[in-house]
Amino acid sequence: MVILVTGANGQLGQSVLKVASKYPNAQFIYCTSSELDVTNLDSCKAAFEKYKPQYCINTAAYTAVDKAESEPEKAFAVNVTGAQNLALVCKEFDAVLLHVSTDFVFDGENTKPYKTTDKTNPINVYGETKLKGEIAIQNIWGKHFIVRTSWVYSEFGNNFKKTMLRLAETRDEISVVNNQIGRPTYAPNLADFLISKIISEDKNYGLYNFSDAKICSWYEFAVDIFKENNVSIKVNPIPASQYPTPAKRPKYSVLEV
Question: Is the whole model's pTM more than 0.70, yes or no?
Answer without folding.
Answer: yes
